């Protein structure tokens, strides 16, 4: 059974995670995590489920994802009958950071983008001891982006693995075996084969919006075990890994193998449905397109692991993501922890979030859990998707997600760097800059205008 239409605005914010970082201008200016005072460490509650008692206020984004969590919180209320949960839909991007800084009317817990957690660590509880029992069974990537100076500040929730989306019928007609796409060089060769068969195709999607193109870049870098900065906040754009990505983009552009279009806007959707685009290397949440937007090619798309950058390399990287935080000035932080522990690490909590529900009868299929016992390839939480020809996206995604390397905390200035790196990526895709120019110019401006001014 496939999922029903998705609330696009609520879904994009929830799945994209990093998406609205630019809207918040009050992040602490310290590298890498903005931490200036000793954080509070939260200890595990000693109360049993039957004796836990009190009231908590929990913030989430509005939209379908709020409804999913609201239903899952109903399961929590059954497990903890004496805990009252005030679940509120809030514009988190506009409100949470300022509320943390002011310390007034803070919630007991909140959904938040992974990208923002490091920048507000001083205003959050240190959850290291609470996460410890689950650490070995949680995605290394999710732990790393929630860690600042060895302390964990977010409860890891979703994992957004990158996948290679492709037109099964087109590849079959061109004699291309999807299983043969083991490296990005293989992908270029396959794109050439497709184009020889049908010259009107420009098979590979390249993103036209600077923000999403930079987010996509970080997925490709994460595949290679790197990111824009290291754990100490040192810029590492000038590296073999980033140069490899930019050189690959340049080659694809020169060979006229790309469609340069903005993510799921009409021009993009039209070129997908017309058969012009055949390959879309993107996050799991691209599954939104065939489920809701595509018409003539609905049911013809499939997902596979991303190609590797080097033979035997990782076959996925993370693109976006969110976790849960507990403010240091929360009134009942221990009870908030019980809720998030239940949703992320306990049954029936994570099944209530990802499994079939009134909002998504087939289950929530735009991300996967970051807790590995919940992400068992043989025990799917969401069902095969009709819009993908009945493909078992769960198995593909969790197996790809297991290969994602660890990363580093996302620097507070990441969204501001789009003015340099994201814009220069667009110039590269337009054939107006070389890889070396993108690296040197972007690195110089990020260092001078963002890092050195911190």
UniProtKB/TrEMBL annotation:
Protein name, UniProt field: Extracellular solute-binding protein
InterPro entries: Bact_solute-bd_prot1, SBP, TAT_signal, TAT_signal_bac_arc
PANTHER family in UniProt: ARABINOSE-BINDING PROTEIN-RELATED, SN-GLYCEROL-3-PHOSPHATE-BINDING PERIPLASMIC PROTEIN UGPB
Pfam families recorded: SBP_bac_1
UniProt entry tagged with the keyword Signal: yes
Family label: Belongs to the bacterial solute-binding protein 1 family.
Native source species: Nonomuraea zeae
GO CC terms, sorted: cell envelope
Alphabetically ordered keywords of this record: Signal, Transport
Signal peptide from the UniProt entry: 1-28
Compartments in which it is found: Cell envelope
Gene3D superfamilies: Periplasmic binding protein-like II
